[in-house]
Amino acid sequence: MLFTIPGAGGSLRNVKIDIDHFGDGALLVSSPSTRRHINLLSKQLGRAWFRFASLRRRSSADTQSDIHQLLLEILDSDSIEGIDVHIGEIEDGELNPFDIGPVLSRRRRPNLSVLTLRGVAIHAAELALFTRSLKPRGYSGGDREPDCWEGLHFWLSKVRLLSGTWARVLDLLRPKSDTHASIERPLGGECVDMSEEEYDKIFGHRFTDSWSSLSLAEHYVRSSMDYDLPNPLHAS
Predict the structure, then answer these.
(1) How does pLDDT run across 69-108, given as a tens digit for each residue?
(2) How far is Cα 230 from Cα 227, in angstroms, rounded to an integer?
(3) Are 45 and 12 in contact (CB under 8 A)?
(4) Distance CA 137, CA 178 (A)
(5) Which residues does 9 contact at the CB level (< 8 Å), separation at least 6?
(6) How many CB atoms lie within 10 A of CB 69?
(7) Which of 51, 62, 72, 123 has its CA 20 to 30 A from that of 228?
(8) Per-position b or e across 167-202, b if 16+ CB within 10 A of its CB
(9) Which is nearest to 177 in space by CA: 230, 233, 115?
């Protein structure tokens, strides 16, 4: 595992942790010295990929705390360019949502260009703090199409909003996103009170990469800031 890597002047550029049927998170971060070791190794980290496929209810509090601690130590670097966190299905009933906000917003992310979040939760206020440190979108130049620009390439799938509104989330993401941003099956916020028809109208799409098949929410966050496009959740 990560904490067995010798630390004599070494560092990591990429990390991938993939665990099925996760029962004892303390095995990942077993002591303060382990946490310090992980943190030192991660100072030059470029990309980090985490998948915890299954969490068990009987160890929920300790397990989630240990996963948080692991992510905090590994992602405590402003060099990071890509973050992927996937929390899978819950065994033995429902657990409290896994709040990724403190991990993302703990420090500035000026180099982050790819963010994939699946099965996690966040407060809109935490997302606002996180997005402030991201680079604004900018035109890529060169031979690319004039409506293509560089920004945060994010994919949010089954992300639960713990407080705030998805309307605000879309407004926060739009000035930072690139032309390939994706939002799939969001939870919480206004979604709780929407009819199935309203939800599908704003967030539904056919899972292809054609512009014409984007959901209204994706169309909004991907669109040029030069366009006076209404937020579909303000207009609904």
Answers:
(1) 888 888 888 889 999 999 876 555 555 788 999 999 988 8
(2) 9
(3) yes
(4) 7
(5) none
(6) 18
(7) 123
(8) bbbbbbbbebbbbebbbbebebbbbeebeeeebeeb
(9) 115
